[in-house]
């Protein structure tokens, strides 16, 4: 009996030790998993939120565009129906009046001595045909004018709708460009903007800025020249071209463009010492004169 009790006690002791070891291991794994979860929580979570915001904005733009298309179609349809209804009503009233006139005329003719019904009939037919022809021609001209006005108005509405759609798309692309940190992707976004608005000098200048960041200086200068050709008063284009010239050590050209940029955009003066592209000009006397705000 003692043997069995001792054996049972040993088994119970071994089982307790095994359970304690398993619990300790589970606690260790749980602590590691908790640490991993904490590390995950420390990672930035704003990127999915921004992407969600952009998707919501695009969805709202599509919904607004669809609603605008439906409203325009309804307005054009109602206008056409109203015009046709007015024309038919006016024509019916005019024909009724003509028949009243014909009846009165026939009665008068009979009273004054026209005994031949055939003469009366022929005369009435001539009067009716002449009057109806005049009315028909008049309303055909009016309907042509109305159709032309409706066509012009429809083209204006469609053109405005297309401009609104392009504006919304460009706005969404600008938002994407502001959120993008990779300069190659930024350049692709600016290309999409320029496909929709080829003469957008702001997009051209910012594309040139992105090209300078990847050392595509020659292409950046070409884009700045293009922006200046489109709008010679846009100061930021001169600024970007000055950055490109400074990076290629064309200091005279860079200083000339800096002066032009400050003439058109005086607020850029605060960025002179913070622009990394102008590092090679910091020892230049003319540049320091410009920074000091003194006339050159």
Structure, briefly:
Residues 1-21 form the signal peptide. This protein is an all-alpha fold.
Fold and architecture overview:
The protein has two domains: about 130 residues; about 110 residues, Serine Threonine Protein Phosphatase 5, Tetratricopeptide repeat, CATH 1.25.40. The chain contains nine helices and no strands. It is about 85% helix and about 0% strand. The chain has about 300 residues and is an all-alpha fold.
Give me the number of helical elements: 9
- β-sheet strand percentage: under 5%
The overall pLDDT average reads 77
| Rg from Cα | 42 Å
Measure the end-to-end span: 113 Å
The secondary-structure class comes to mainly alpha
Number of strands: 0
Largest sheet: none
Q: How many domains, in number, for the residues?
A: 2
* Assembly annotation: single chain
Unreliable parts: none
- Run of helices and strands: HHHHHHHHH
Query: Portion of residues in helices?
Result: over 70%
Question: What keywords describe this structure?
Answer:
296 residues; 2 domains; mainly alpha; Serine Threonine Protein Phosphatase 5, Tetratricopeptide repeat; elongated
